[in-house]
TrEMBL record:
The keyword Iron applies. Residues 315-346, 350-379 form the 4Fe-4S ferredoxin-type domain. Pfam families: DUF362, Fer4_7. InterPro entries: 4Fe4S_Fe-S-bd, 4Fe4S_Fe_S_CS, DUF362, PSI_iron-sulfur_center. This is Ferredoxin. Ferredoxins are iron-sulfur proteins that transfer electrons in a wide variety of metabolic reactions.
Length: 390
């Protein structure tokens, strides 16, 4: 009989630091209490908190880990270590500015938590990899005794969902993230890369901010959904598996990261292998959460057929022209070295135009558009197959 991995599922309806702290402490109690925490965080270990800082966002933004949530986590962790750091490398913009604007830096100063911009890196070789053996990652992420990831519950254009596994992509410094998109244009390989990355930095624990989640055109331009949820656990795949079931995926394997994790025997994924303590999935599940991508990957014995059909059904980035502010960020962040996106003049306004024969469908343009002017458009075949349904 396979031992079940325990995940704490908690209900919290507002960003109140006292209430969130109480819920996080309740979650740790459900997982094993003080003894559990002392094992997870040996006294005065070097602890790295890894929030989601996708971009430079305001305090009330649903794009990033909420600053009140961040404070509640610190208040719990500081009982076990006074050597706490936090950091991230955003997809665009300066990490220090991002941490300052969204309120995390102010909270960190209050509790003497140190900030690391993830600019100093180390080269690492991963012997037992699924796909990627050679790595360059933020030094502190690799050297910390304990890495606690603090993802935001959000939809994602390429990965369908971004949570505890994908949050560590921020451990890849700066523009090197674009290189990984170019090297891994296939979504399945990209997800294997994310799993290998978590093996490199040895992510120890996840506390997911799902009090107000992002639905629809995530991970930057979606809309808020009050999920009133905090999810905690050592297995980041089990945390994500619990999260995707809550937002509307009946089968966790319908999401690419968890499908690759299951196929590779990397972590706990299936519901029957996860013990959810606290609230129940049925009580916390949303019936109206707008998914960014529906399930539906096609696998055939002949890989040529598989690649052909995937090309036929793959969605494309789509411009909402009225929202475009002609900033050109989409072209700037495209990992294909500006071969894909050109800025063209239409009606006295410069707008992006894609060369879809070159586009690798990484959706970095959609992910980082500051105006929410890019969403995902499905092909005629994918609509016939029902893959555009939310």
């Amino acid at each position: 009989m396979i031992a079940k991995e325990r995940v704490a599922l908690l209900k919290c309806e507002e960003y109140d630091v006292e209430k969130i702290e109480a819920k996080i402490r309740e979650g740790f109690d459900l997982l094993g209490g003080d003894k559990y925490l002392k094992k997870l965080i040996p006294r005065n270990s070097k602890v790295l908190l890894k929030p989601n800082l996708l971009d430079v966002e305001s305090k009330d933004s649903i794009v990033v880990t909420n600053y009140v949530f961040f404070e509640a986590v610190i208040r719990v962790i500081k009982d076990y270590s006074s050597n706490i750091f936090f950091g991230d490398s955003p997809g665009f913009g300066d990490s220090c500015k991002a941490a300052e604007k969204c309120g995390l830096m102010e909270v960190a100063r209050k509790y003497d938590v140190k900030f690391d911009p993830f600019k100093e890196s180390v080269n690492v070789y991963l012997n037992e990899s699924l796909l990627c053996k050679s790595w360059n990652v933020a030094k502190i992420a690799y050297e910390a005794d304990v890495l606690i990831t603090l993802p935001k519950m959000k939809t994602h254009g390429m990965a369908y969902f971004t949570g505890a596994v994908k949050n560590q992509f921020g451990c890849v410094p700066g523009t090197q993230k674009a290189t990984w998109h170019t090297r891994m244009p296939d979504a399945n390989n990209f997800c294997k890369m994310l799993l290998d990355l978590n093996s490199v930095v040895k992510t120890n624990f996840a506390i997911m901010d799902g009090i107000v989640a992002m639905e629809g055109n995530g991970p930057k331009s979606g809309t808020p959904n009050n999920m009133n949820t905090i999810i905690m656990g050592e297995s980041i795949t089990a945390v994500d598996s619990t999260a995707v079931r809550i937002i509307g995926y009946d089968n966790p394997l319908d999401t690419p990261v968890l499908k690759e994790a299951f196929d590779s025997n990397w972590g706990f994924v299936l519901p029957e292998h996860i013990e959810v303590v606290g609230e129940t999935i049925s009580n916390m599940r949303s019936n109206n959460f707008k998914l960014c991508r529906e399930a539906g990957n096609f696998y055939f014995i002949n890989p040529v057929v598989t690649r052909f059909l995937r090309g036929m059904i793959a969605p494309n980035p789509h411009l909402i022209e009225g929202k475009c502010i002609s900033c050109g960020r989409c072209r700037e962040v495209c990992p294909e070295n500006r071969k894909v996106i050109s800025m063209v003049k239409v009606k006295n306004k410069e707008i992006p135009q894609w060369d879809m024969n070159r586009c690798i469908r990484c959706f970095c343009c959609q992910e980082l558009c500051p105006a929410g002017a890019i969403d995902i458009k499905y092909t005629t075949l994918s609509r016939i197959l029902g893959m555009d349904k939310r």
